[in-house]
Design goal:
The protein is mainly α and 267 residues long. It is built from eleven helices and no strands. The model has no long low-confidence stretch (mean pLDDT 82).
Length: 267
């Protein structure tokens, strides 16, 4: 009975945001617009490099696939952080937590909405990459599912951490939803191998789940085969980060409720 009630409450939170998406075509357009623009810009740059580099001609799909996978991580982070911040902007956060909604149910709803937002964002760009550039990211095969899950979970962890900071420090911390994820981009090895980084920085990069995912992607696309060790390392790190981020969010939320900060959130 409790499980059924939880699903109803999680579904109610998701339904509110899905109604917002459905009634706002600019929001839906924005979700699909940026991945498409990135794919177009980097795709045409790739075609130029193909004409001037024999090595790049052999790895034509690597850059475009990296762009698409990077956007999974970016959108997963924003899907959680923006869903939480929209409640603040609407001054609805206090109302949510005087309802029977439990904190973990709110977390489940935010992560589920993040998944939906990410699919809406990435799928159109992934499908258009084939007629535009002859790149079919689904050629990665079954490993693509593992890469997708790894990047989604890491994005959720970052989004929960950002939501915790916004809850604790107010809307001045909102920019971290964009700044934080881009700060990790140079260390994730999105467009280049980790061994390009200085030696002292490589252990930091290997501590990120995203680094293992992008190294695994390159291994598959460049003909070196699937690396299960990289995927396993990514999943293990993701488990640690998601537990830490979720715990930090719940602790911050508890403090905010005790101090009455939920009712003070807003523009």
């Amino acid at each position: 009975m409790t499980g059924g009630s939880s699903m109803v409450r999680i579904g109610a939170v998701m339904l509110r945001h899905l109604y917002i998406l459905r009634s706002s075509w600019p929001r839906l357009l924005e979700l699909a617009y940026w991945p498409f623009v990135q794919m177009v810009l980097w795709g045409f740059m790739t075609l130029f490099l193909v004409r001037t580099s024999s090595w790049f001609a052999e790895a034509v799909g690597v850059l475009i696939s990296a762009v698409l996978l990077w956007d999974i991580l970016f959108r997963a982070n924003l899907g959680v952080a923006l869903t939480f911040m929209e409640e603040i902007w609407a001054r609805n956060l206090g109302h949510l937590y005087v309802s029977p909604l439990r904190p973990w149910e709110h977390l489940a709803a935010m992560m589920s909405l993040s998944l939906i937002r990410t699919l809406i964002s990435v799928l159109p760009a992934a499908l258009l990459a084939l007629p535009f550039y002859g790149v079919w990211v689904f050629d990665l095969g079954l490993p693509l599912l593992g890469f997708f899950i790894g990047l989604m979970v890491f994005g959720w962890s970052i989004g929960l951490f950002v939501a915790s900071l916004v809850l604790r420090f107010g809307q001045g911390a909102e920019s971290l939803a964009w700044v934080g994820i881009f700060a990790l981009a140079p260390l994730s090895g999105i467009y280049y191998p980790i061994d390009v980084l200085p030696g002292w920085l490589q252990p930091v990069a290997w501590a990120l789940p995203s680094s293992h995912v992008f190294e695994g992607m390159r291994s598959v696309l460049l003909g070196d085969g699937f690396r299960p060790d990289l995927l396993a390392a990514s999943m293990a790190l993701n488990g640690v980060y998601l537990i830490l981020a979720g715990a930090w969010f719940l602790i911050t939320l508890r403090i905010a409720r005790v101090r009455g900060l939920l009712l003070q959130q807003g523009e």
